[in-house]
Structure formats: C-alpha cells, structure tokens
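Regression test case RT-17, inverse folding.

Input:
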C-alpha cells in the first residue's frame, strides 16, 4: 500500500504472530483476529461480541480491508489507482465512491497543511525508489521534472464523482492516508453492525471506541524510536480516538551507504530530515478520524515540530507528539497541549 507506517503497540502488546481464525477471547465475550495485510503489515480487529452480531463479522472486516487495498495500491497496475495513473487524463475522469472520498479528504488535508500532504507525490517517490535500486542519488534535473508533476491543486472536482486533471500525466499515491482510510471503513462497518466497543488496526493506524476488554479506556502504546520491541509511552482516551504514527525506522531509503527518509516533501522534492524519528497524531472526533490522523501524521513529519505543533493547536480535536534526534543523538519529545492530556511516558 505504498508508504509503511511505524507499528503502534495497541493495548501495550506487540503482535506475536498471525492468527487466521477469529475466536472469542477466553470467557471474555470478546473476539480478536490478527492478520498480516498488504504484504506483511500487522493488522487487527478486536470487538466485544454483543448479542445479535453476525458470526462472520471478523471475516467481513478483513474482506473490507482487502477491498480497499484493491482500490488504492499504487504499486499494483490492476488497482483503481494503478489504472488511473497509467491513463492519459484528458478531461474529467470518473472514479469510484472510495476514490472520490479519498480525493475529497486529501484536498481538505492538502489545504490544512499548506501542501505538506499531497497524494500526487508518486513521481517523486518512484524517482527516489529507483535511485535506491541503482544506489545513486537522483540528478537535480530529474528531481525538478518530477516535482513539476506534483500538486493536488491541479486536480479539481468536476461533477458527481468526477475529477479534472490539469496535468494529464499526474500520478496518485495514497500511501500517506490509505491505511487510515481502510481502518475508518472497517470500523464504520463494525459499528453499523452493532459493535459497541472495538479496535481496528492496520500497521501504525488505529481506531478505537467504547471500552477495552479490561472495562477501562483503550491504552495505545507508542513504539520507542530506538527499540522496536518496547513502547516509549501510552496514549489513552475514554472517548473514541484515532491514532497514527509516521516514522523512518522501518523503511529508510538507502543510497550510497547513507539513509534517507522515505517521506518526501512535495514542495521541495527532497526526503525530509532524518532527525525526525517519529510523529504520532491523535484525532478525537469525526467519521474519518483515522484518515485525518494518517494524513496529518504524514504532513507533520514534513512540517517538523515547530510548524507541526502550531498546526495541531489550530485544529479542533487534534493532538501531536514528535520524537526528534538532536545534534548529540539524544531523543527529545515535543507534545501539543491536547497530547499532554492523552500521553504518558
């Protein structure tokens, strides 16, 4: 699904494996199923098995995950995004309901973040991935040409589920929002089926509502940027919450023996600073909270702690946490005011 996100340690537990069969947790009245999705991303559905729920609800949830993957995977030529990217886009293009919703959400995030979030970044991402395979930095001229194809402002609504492309060779990559969108759609499906308490996770994207199996609020562990096996802290909320973490520990771009961030600034065409070890965003309300958390985490990694914290303070129901490496190699933590109420080291 493109950009991978750091794993959040949900309920302070790491994934120990992949269970393909859903089953009630012993004598708890809860159902939990873990799977690896999208070429190995740990994913999880957990919910209270209230009376009257369909027996195959967990299987339906993972079918929904797979359906979203077939829409958004820019690496797959037969996905909707893959087909759209290959088209010469002359005139308005009709898209599915999911892609239309993703475009609308993305335009909102693009405007909120002054272009730091931009799903038209695919030409830049491919350029840098090709450079990593060749083990040679891309030429400045190639970066410039790729950047000239980036800009969500040149894709505009053109009627019911139609979009007009001012750049016919524009290409889309929803890796910075896709897993959050998938988590939103799965949690929406579960709630519509009558689930009163649950948690849905795909990699670093989590949506939780109601109470946890312990009867208290959900506790979501945030991975230590220097150790994949432990949590650095815990985010907890008594209300519905969406949490997303973006970072460079799992998928750096390596060229010439040097590591570069796998997140790119759409405004410059360059990888962002590797000093930013991790960004965690929590969104506390809204039907697309997972999508917003995912997109904002991507954008705030681009913006950095100063502008990122200022942006979080300006948005209702948004909290952010930055882990940044200083010039001495120490990890510093920066929190917005709302995150201070949610996060405990």
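Golden output:
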């Amino acid at each position: 699904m493109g950009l991978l996100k750091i794993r959040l340690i949900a309920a302070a537990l790491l994934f120990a494996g992949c269970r393909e069969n859903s089953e009630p947790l012993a004598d708890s009245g809860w159902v939990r199923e873990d799977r690896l999705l999208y070429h190995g991303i740990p994913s999880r559905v957990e919910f209270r098995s209230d009376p009257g729920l369909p027996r195959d609800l967990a299987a339906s949830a993972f079918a929904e995950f797979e359906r979203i993957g077939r829409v958004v995977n820019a690496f797959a030529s037969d996905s909707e995004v893959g087909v759209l990217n290959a088209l010469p886009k002359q005139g308005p293009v009709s898209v599915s309901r999911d892609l239309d919703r993703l475009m609308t959400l993305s335009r909102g995030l693009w405007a909120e973040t002054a272009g730091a979030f931009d799903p038209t970044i695919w030409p830049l991402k491919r350029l840098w991935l090709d450079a990593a395979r060749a083990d040679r930095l891309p030429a400045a001229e190639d970066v410039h040409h790729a950047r000239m194809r980036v800009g969500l402002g040149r894709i505009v609504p053109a009627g019911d589920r139609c979009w007009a492309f001012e750049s016919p060779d524009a290409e889309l990559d929803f890796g910075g929002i896709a897993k959050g969108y998938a988590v939103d759609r799965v949690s929406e499906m579960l709630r519509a089926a009558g689930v009163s308490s649950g948690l849905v996770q795909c990699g670093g994207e989590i949506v939780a509502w109601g109470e946890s199996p312990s009867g208290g609020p959900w506790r979501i562990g945030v991975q230590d940027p220097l150790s994949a096996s432990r949590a650095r802290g815990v985010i907890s909320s008594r209300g519905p919450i969406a949490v997303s973490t973006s970072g460079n520990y799992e998928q750096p771009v390596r060229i010439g023996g040097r590591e570069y961030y796998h997140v790119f600034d759409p405004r410059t065409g360059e990888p962002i600073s590797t000093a930013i070890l991790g960004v965690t965003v929590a969104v506390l309300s809204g039907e697309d909270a997972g999508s917003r958390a995912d997109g904002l985490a991507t954008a705030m990694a681009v913006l950095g702690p100063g502008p990122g914290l200022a942006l979080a303070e300006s948005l209702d129901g948004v909290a952010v946490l930055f882990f940044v490496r200083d010039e001495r190699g120490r990890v510093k933590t920066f929190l917005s005011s709302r995150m201070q109420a949610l996060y405990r080291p």
